[in-house]
Specification:
314 residues; mainly beta; globular
Length: 314
Amino acid sequence: MADYKAIKGHNIETVAGDPSVLQVGDIWYSNTTRKIRGAKLGAGAWSSGGDTGTARYFNGALGTQTAGLIATGYSNQTSSMITNSEEYDGSAWAEGNDINTGGVYLYACCGTQTAGLMGGRTSDPPPGDQCEEYNGTSWAEVNNYATPRYQAGGAGTQTAGIVFGGGWPSVLAITETYDGTNWTEVNDMNTSRTNVSGCGTQTATLCIGGYPPKALVEEYNGTSWTEIADLNAASYASGSFGTTTSAVLAAPGTKTEQWDGTSWTEVNDQSVPRSQSNCDGESSAAFLACGGPPSIVTTEEWDISAAASSFTSS
């Protein structure tokens, strides 16, 4: 088994207190506390970001905190579906080209601002099976889901996506994967549900919550789904981002829960109550929550900084 020096190229450093700059994964010896200490992700907190140009909910969102994309949704002000899409640069939203067909019912979204995929959209009441890809400039229709659905969960990338759950006419457990061209049905989830939240990759996915209100969480490993630790509170119509070992859920209302690969912990609340929205981000350390009823424009940014902690023996 490799030791610390073999991995890092140097011995554990001795520091008077803690290093002035913390990097997650660093380890040092504090001659103040006389303990081995390390840097890990802290609890995280929300702060205000730039408002979207168009108020909406039931919208889709994807990308990162500094390169986000929001599209479609429903406007209470105009009582209509929206075709508008907007891009986020880390501080402000700018309107881009419209999606071909406006829609609602919580898109399953994945990918980046320059290579995104939104699915489940329909211009009429459900079911929704229409999918579009975004190349950073314009939208293009691509192949539909094999099973029409709405309020499904999504994760992955534009060329390796996954969609799961949803409903119409009954609640579904059906899972499909996308290879950049076609959708293929794979193994079902253990529990059928709609209004789910998803994050991760095509081969390492979390399906979180669902309706009727559930605290249930399942993990997909590229082959099958396994039930893991429940949320502290039932959640549906939520936003989430991260991985199967480090994720954050922006639950309906203001509640936020953080996943460490073993358990969920309630952390700092959002400032603005929201649901039926979507999140985008690159990791659980930095992402956005945007949209939500009653057709709001507010955006919040989630950030986690490194925190020092002492190791304990077991």
